[in-house]
């Protein structure tokens, strides 16, 4: 099973859907007060915690979100766990698809390397004799464009 953009998944007090590279969470006023709708870019999700539902318990998918402010301890338990999406056994395949969708996108490491870093690596390779001066000059010209 896969999840399609815009397809809404209903959980306990939260409606969830995906848009482009973001997870959308719409909170029910009854359970969460006036939190409204939250857009969570996948690039801000650092981990996905998962628990399968049991015969007497619900399962959950919890998103760890980079840079999110801690919730005050006096807030309701629902607000404290606003990134935890609880679901029933019947909804397991849909939420597993959502989990897989998120994990596929957060699992891709994004490496940021500057031109100076690349030149430094090339200089090290030249110094250690792994590349020739000509190879170094060609790669340097490519980097400096």
Summarize the entry for a quick read:
With 145 residues, the protein is α+β, with helices and mostly antiparallel strands. The protein has helices spanning 29-32, 77-80, 92-106, 115-127, 133-144; strands at residues 9-10, 14-19, 22-27, 37-41, 45-51, 59-65, 84-87.
Low-confidence blocks of residues: none
Tally of helical segments: 5
Query: Overall mean pLDDT score?
Result: 84
What proportion of the residues form beta strands (DSSP E)?
25-35%
Q: The biggest beta sheet, please?
A: 4 strands, antiparallel
Helix and strand element order: EEEHEEEHEHHH
What overall form do the CA principal axes indicate?
elongated
The main sheet orders its strands as 1-2-3-4
* Oligomeric category: single chain
Helix-and-strand structural type: alpha+beta
Number of strands: 7
Range of helix content: 25-40%
End-to-end separation: 45 Å
The radius of gyration over CA amounts to 22 Å
What does this structure look like?
The protein is of the alpha+beta class and 145 residues long. 33% of the residues lie in helices and 26% in strands. The chain is built from five helices and seven strands; from the N terminus they run βββαβββαβααα. It has helices at 29-32, 77-80, 92-106, 115-127, 133-144; strands at 9-10, 14-19, 22-27, 37-41, 45-51, 59-65, 84-87. The strands form two sheets. Strands 1-2-3-4 form a four-stranded antiparallel sheet. A three-stranded antiparallel sheet has the order 5-6-7, with helices on one face.
